[in-house]
Amino acid sequence: MSSERIAQLEQALLAVIAAAGKMGICSDELCAQAVGGLMSDHYWSWANAQHAQGAADEIDNALNMLVRRSMAQVKAPDAELGSGVSSSQASN
């Protein structure tokens, strides 16, 4: 598989997980259901057991990547003020 195709599939997976979160669907629960479906041979007949563990790992990696990115975007109150003054001190 080409590296371009892999990048497209990774981006697609991240987009689906992010869209679910935007729609109010718990990303953790969504991914847990997907992994559970992959790991149960009889749950989804189209799932290939040979690739199930790798696919489950990719889902976990994608979810962790989105969580890390979300946490990196969250700014601490002190950083937002830019002066080293805590938010409680700034309101006084």
How do the SSEs run, as a string of H and E? HHHHH
Give the terminus-to-terminus CA distance.
Answer: 60 Å
Largest sheet: none
> What global shape is seen?
globular
Number of strands: 0
**Strand coverage percent:** under 5%
Helix content: over 70%
Radius of gyration: 19 Å
Structural class, judged by helices and strands? mainly alpha
Q: Give me the number of helical elements.
A: 5
Unreliable stretches (pLDDT < 50, length at least 5) are 80-92
Average pLDDT score: 83
Write up this protein:
The protein starts with a helix and ends with a helix. The chain has a domain at 3-66. The longest helix has 25 residues, at 49-73. It is mostly helical and 92 residues long. It has helices at residues 3-22, 27-39, 49-73, 77-81, 87-90. Helices cover 73% and strands 0% of the residues. The chain contains five helices and no strands.
Keywords for this structure?
globular, 92 residues, mainly alpha, disordered C terminus
Helix/strand layout:
Layout (H helix, E strand, L loop, with lengths): L2 H20 L4 H13 L9 H25 L3 H5 L5 H4 L2
Give the gist of this structure.
By secondary structure, the chain is mainly alpha-helical. Helices cover 73% and strands 0% of the residues.
